[in-house]
Amino acid sequence: MNYHIITYGCQMNEHDSEKIAGMLESMGYQETDDHAGADIIVFNTCLIRKNAELKVFGKVGSLKQLKEDNPEMIIAVGGCMMQQKGPVDELYQKYPQVDIIFGTHNIHKLPSLINQVKHGEERVIDVWEEDKGLIPDLPSKRRNKFQAWVTIIQGCDNYCSYCIVPHVRGSERSRPLEDIVDEVKKLVADGVIDITLLGQNVNSYGLDLDDDYDFPDLLSELAKINGLEKIKYMTSHPKDLSDKLIKTVARNDNISKHFHLPVQSGSSRILKAMNRKYDREHYLGLINKIRDNIPDAVITTDFIVGFPGETESDFEKTLSLVEKVRFDMAYTFAYSPREGTPAAKKADQISSEEKHRRLQALMDKQNQISYEVNQELIGKEIDVLVEGESKKDPDYFSARSDGNKLVIIPAKTKKLIGNIITAKINEAGSWTLYGDIVNN
Ligand code: SAH
Ligand code: SF4
Ligand code: F3S
What we know:
This protein is of the alpha/beta class. About 35% of the residues lie in helices and about 20% in strands.
C-alpha cells in the first residue's frame, strides 16, 4: 500500500505533511513519488494567495480520470484551504473524486477518517471550526537524518488586515518549554544537528502560558543541548523582536545569525492600514540594533506591493527602505485579496497591471542588491551544512550557510552530507553562491 502527499504553502504545512506521512507509515503505507501508483493521495493545501488555491483545484481536477480507473484509490484534501467554507463546498460539489476533506485542527484524525472510507463510508468531511488546544504530538517522517522542524507555537493572533492565516490556523497556542526541550533532545540523540523552530510569530512564544518564560529563554535552553549544532527559527514579527532576543542570538554560537524579519511595506501609512503595529522608523531602528550587535547578521524580509490604497509615493518608500536596509534577500508578493479579511473589503484596490509593475520594479532593485551583497562574500571562507545532491547537477552538492544562503559545492564524497564544513566562495549570483571545499 502506497501513499503520495502533495504539499503547498509554508514550512508549517511542510511539517504537517511530515506528520501525515508519519501517521500513514504507522498504518502500514509506504511513500511513493508516483501519484498514479498511490493507494492514497493526500493534498495539504494553502490559501495565502489566490494562485495557491488555483493550483490545488487544478491538480485535484487532473486526478479525475485516475480515480475513475481506480475507484479504490483514496483522495484526501486537508490544510488551510479546507478551513474555509467556500473551497470546501466547491470541492465537495464539483470534485466527486475527493473522498476525504479534513482541516488544520484535526490532522491527527486522518487515520480514522481513512478507516471510515475503507469501511464503506462514501465521502467524509471533518473540519473543526475552532482549534481545541494544541494538536497532539505525532510521529513525523523527517526529510533527512540530520535536520528537523519543531513547532513551538501554533496559530496566530496578529490579524494583519490582508492575511488569512489567523482565520484558518486558530489562536496562538505555545507548547510547554519542557515538551520542546524533550523533543529536541530526542531528535539530537537520533542524529539531528540542525533544527528550525516554527511559528507564525515565534516572538509571541510563551505569552499565552502561565509560566514566566519567553522565546529568548527557550532559545537559551535549547542552545545548551550538546550535539545541537544549529538552531534556526521562523518567523519573527518586527513588533515583538526584543533586545533580549538579539543579545541571546549574539551570545550563542549555535543560534543562527539569520533574521527573517518581514517588513511588508516601507510606508508607515500602509503599515498602519496593514495592522502591523510598527512603523518604518521602528523597523529601521531594529535593523540598526541587529547590525550593531551582530555585524555579520543575514537579514531577509517579505514585501507585499499593491495593498489597497498604496500610492506611488508609498511604493517609493518601499523602494527607499530596500536601499537603506540592503537586505540579503526578499520574498516579494503582489497583494491578493482574501475573502474574510478586512483589506479585501476596501474600495481602493490596485489594478493587477499596476501591482505587477510595482512587483517587477521591487524585484529588480532587490535582486541587484542581493547580487552586490553576495559579491562581498567572494574569497571568504564560510561554514555550510551539506544538505545533499544539487537538484540541477548530481556532480554538485547543495549546502546552506548559517544565514540560509544556498551554496553549491563539488560533490566530493557522500560522507560530507549531513556535516558542517568550510567552503571558500568563488562565485556569487543574487540567489546562489558557488564555492570550493576547504580542508575537509
Ligand atoms: N507569519 C509570517 C508570514 C506568514 S505568510 C509573518 O507574519 O511574517 C508569508 C508572507 O506571505 C507574508 O509575510 C506576506 O508577505 C505574504 N502574504 C500574506 N498574505 C498575503 C496576501 N493576502 N497577499 C499577498 N501576500 C500575502
Ligand atoms: Fe499573517 Fe500577520 Fe499572522 Fe504573519 S503575523 S501569519 S502575516 S496575520
Ligand atoms: Fe499557507 Fe496555511 Fe502556511 S495558508 S502560508 S499553508 S499557514
